[in-house]
Fold this protein.
Amino acid sequence: MRRSMEGLYYFIGLVLLVGQWVLPKIIDVGEEEMRDTPVYRGFLLGSWALLIPILILIWTMDRSRPYPVWPFLLAVLYCFRGYMEWKYIRETIRHQVSFILAGVFILFALLMVCILLFGTTNL
């Protein structure tokens, strides 16, 4: 059980890394970035405010059990990013990458809820 949950956590981390850097290459997102906008400071503060609890949770959680709250919090973080990108840099489609990753993390959270509800004897 412990190995399978750790494997799922590593896979989620891999999806995060690959999605963050590969999806913008697949989807031509454009050149403009959030740092080119007047709301960049608020964007950074909001992102860090959402990221710090996730990091604390990841470092303190028992990796042998499913914790659906942290993929859900990652989805919230990417929804925030997607909204800010959609609102302030509409010329690009960078927000699509953020919303795709948010959807992926919601699916991971639902998978973990299913694992908690239906047991983990088959993993």
